[in-house]
Every structure is written in C-alpha cells, then in structure tokens.
Amino acid sequence: MARLVVVSNRVPLPRTKGAASAGGLAVALQSFVAPGTLWFGWSGRVMERTATKPRFVEGGGVTYATLDLGAEDYDRFYVGFANSALWPLLHFRLGLMRYTREDFDGYLAVNAAFADALMPMLRPDDMVWVHDYHLIPFAAALRARGFAGRIGFFLHIPFVPASVLEALPPARDLLRALCAYDVVGFQTRTHLADFLDCARRFTGFTVEGEEVLTDGRRVRAIANPIGIDAAGFARMAARSAGTAYIQRMRESLVGRALAISAERLDYSKGLPNRFEGFARLLARFPNQQRRVSLLQIAARSREDVEEYQTLRRELDRLAGDINGRFSQFDWVPLRYMTQTVARTKLAGLFRIARIGLVTPLRDGMNLVAKEFVAAQDPADPGVLILSRFAGAAEELTEALLVNPYDPDEIAEAMQAALEMPLEERQARHAVLRKAVFEVTSARYCNTFVDALAA
Ligand code: G6P
Asked: Can you tell me where the transmembrane regions are (predicted)?
C-alpha cells in the first residue's frame, strides 16, 4: 500500500497531544494516522530564519517532520495572509480582511520552502494529503518540483460564494492552485457547490458535475464532513465524570444547571453575541437567575493577530459587565476562562452540562458540537444549542438551531433547553447521537483516502 504523507501547518507532535486549543484538524487525524505515516509541517516555533531541513520526532510509529519558521515568514505567512486575509474572508468577515501583496508573497514563499524541504523525503508512489487554508498552493509547489504522485487537499474551514471570494485580490491564483490537486474536499455540500461555482467563474477551466477539467487533468471535488472518535470520546466522558476534578465542579454548582461553551478565543465563534444572549436570558427570564451558570472556556489563540487582541479586551469587558450586573454574593453567572483545559477534563464537563452552547457566526464544521453530543449520558442528556452557520448544523438537525446574530434567539433557546422535559431531551439526543456515531473521524479519513487512491 502507498505511504500516506500528511501535510498541515500545525503538527500534533506527540508531547503536545491533547491540548484543547489544537482545533478540529489535529484532533480528528491524530487518532487515525497509521504507523508508517509521515506527517510534515510547521514546528510551531519562530526563529531568525525559516529552516531548510526538518527536525524529526517519532511517536506511535508515525514520523513527524517539522520546520521552524523565520520571524518575517511567520508575520507574512501565518499572522498575515493566512490569518488576517484568508481566515476572515473564508468566515464571511470581509470587514476584518487585511490584504497586502507582501503577505501574499510571503505565503507563497513559505509554501515553496515547505515543498523544498518535503521533496527529498517523498517517494514516487506516496499519497500526499494536504490540510487547510495555510497550504492551498502546496500541490502546485510540489508539482513544480517534479512530484507526479497523488495529492489531495481538505479545507477544514468554510468556502465562500463567488461574490465574497472575489474581494480577495489573488482569488484566481488560489482557485487555480486548488486545481493542481487530484482531490479537493470540503466539510459540506454548500461549500462544495460554492467551490465549483467559483472554479467555473474564476479559472477558465470546465466544470463537469463535481469535477474540474484543467489542461490535461481532472480534479475531483467532494463533500466529506469531518467527525470524531465518538465511542472513544463517550468513554472518556463517562470515566472523567467520576474524577475528583468533576466532583469539584459539581460541588461548586450546588445543584444549579451548567451551560458550557469551549473553543479557541476567535471572532468566528460569536462570543460577544453569546454573552449578550446569556445576559438576555437572565434579564428576560429572571427565574433562571441563581439556577444556571455558564462556563465559557475560550482558549487564547493567534495572539499576534490584532483582531484577537481586540476581541479579548472586549470579552474581558463584557464578562465583567454581566457578572457585575447579575452576580449575587453566592452566585456568579458567568465563569470565563482563557486557559486551555485538557480534553479529558473537557469531556467530563460536557457530560455533566445541561446545555452545550455552540454558536459560531460561521464554522467549517465545529467538532465541539459533536463532542458534546457524544459525551452525554443517554438516560439524562443535556441539550445542544447550535448555530445554523456551523457546518455541523447540516447533520445535527435535532439540536436547537439558532441564528447566532440574534441574542434573543440564543436566550430563548437557553430558556427552552432549561425547561425541556426529559422525554424530549432523550428523543433529540438519540437522533443526534446516531449522527455523531455514524460520521466518525475514521469514516472521514477512509473516505478521503479512498477518493485520493481512486
Ligand atoms: C482551526 C484551523 C486549523 C488550525 C486551528 C488552530 O481549527 O482550521 O487549521 O490549526 O484552528 O489555529 P492555529 O492558528 O493555532 O493553528
């Protein structure tokens, strides 16, 4: 069998596994990759210059090869084009997009440097699977260096309609770069349809069904939703619920309901709207005061990007406002923390929560929604409140779906969840659980690899 080579900007090096800030990509893949796999990407370190030779670490039979980034490359590639232009654009936030040609050049240069470093390690029959928006030009860079094997790409975040994408000056270059892959994967059918439409409009290539015909090659586009190891997460949650940590949490709640949210501190996650929604719950349904606490875990992320610093200050202020306004001497409504929490602890917290509040303004998939479902006790499950604009909403239709731009809708969904009878909670959870146990991370990986091998 061909060797699998995974390429992603973040590499879950063995010693950093389990960090809650890792994001869906690393989490879904790290449980799947088979011994013998080569995983290549950024080391997470910034040095004076970008390295030319990778450093190797072994773990579970997988070889991890990583490169340090130089300070200027880090600024232009990671802070700049990837996270100040592409990330906001692909989350429908044109107002936050900061584009410069220098950043785009830096983005191309890092992709080229990564390709230079990987090339000598590649065997002709390797299958290369590239992940996420940092590395869109990676296949073109490998092809330019003579690699002729199969290369696939999966986009973990949303894809946007042509009328949004056209605002990005190098939109056409990126679409042509995507057409250098053999397979291009998206989280949902909507993202897939938008990609095909953009390919038709911007590249001059022909689109036939779900394939793009380039000069001499075929690119297959697929929708392949990412999932979790549902059974594993459910076991972890059940175990975790019996630990001293979760016992302490229970004691601190003194019988009150727990609502929980956990993610990276990112403007795509809709945190200010959620805080406002919670404040409206307490104001409009005052009988819920003292009866519920919201634990918001917002792990600090991308702190060198200005928008993230601004958001953090805003959340500090909003959290202070809410707690100043509603707290009583023995009850604090909002517990807000920006540290990361280990996944095992998170699983236990999900299990004892009455509400999982997952309200991003946009999200490619959102695996927290799936983890929350898997973590519940089917006999007495909590309620998932989910944004319509998370990819997960296409599958998790029995959640309470909300438009996260309307804080009153969030408040009303919380009220409904707190008052929901046991039978309805069980019925909704049973349907959600089935969906989460069906579309697992293993299925996601197999589907993609099969498509790439075809
Ligand atoms: C999202 C992205 C991932 C990224 C993760 C963490 O999940 O899709 O590609 O790795 O966020 O962000 P960071 O900037 O820390 O890598």
From this structure: none
Residue 82 DSSP symbol: I
Residue 133 main-chain phi, psi, to 5 deg:
-65, -15
Annotate 172-224 with DSSP letters as a single string: HHHHHHHTTSSEEEESSHHHHHHHHHHHHHHH--EEETTEEE-SS-EEEEEE-
d(CA 224, CA 211): 15
Smallest CA separation from ligand 1 atom 7, residue: 23
Mean pLDDT throughout 33-38?
A: 90
Q: Is the dihedral of CA 84, 87, 90, 95 positive or negative?
A: negative
* Ligand 1 atom index nearest CA of 78: 14
Q: Which of 112, 2, 6 is nearest to 453 (CA)?
A: 2
Q: Which atom of ligand 1 is nearest to the CA of 134?
A: 9
ipTM: 0.99
Testing ligand 1's pocket by substitution, the residue of 10, 66, 75, 263 carrying the most ligand atoms inside 8 A of its CB is 10
The model's pTM: 0.97
Q: What is the DSSP letter of 449?
A: H
What pLDDT does residue 34 have?
A: 85
User: Hey, whose CA ends up nearest to atom 6 of ligand 1?
Assistant: 23
Annotated catalytic residue 380:
no
Residue nearest atom 2 of ligand 1, based on CA coordinates: 23
Q: Ligand 1 — pocket residues by CB below 6 A?
A: 10, 23-25, 132, 156-157, 301-302
Positive or negative: CA dihedral 432, 433, 435, 439: positive
Pairing of strands 62-70, 55-59: antiparallel
* All residues at 6 or more sequence positions from 256 whose CB lies less than 8 Å from its CB, including other chains: 290, 291, 292, 293, 331
Give the ranges where 343-454 is alpha helix by DSSP (H).
Answer: 343-352, 367-375, 407-419, 422-438, 441-453
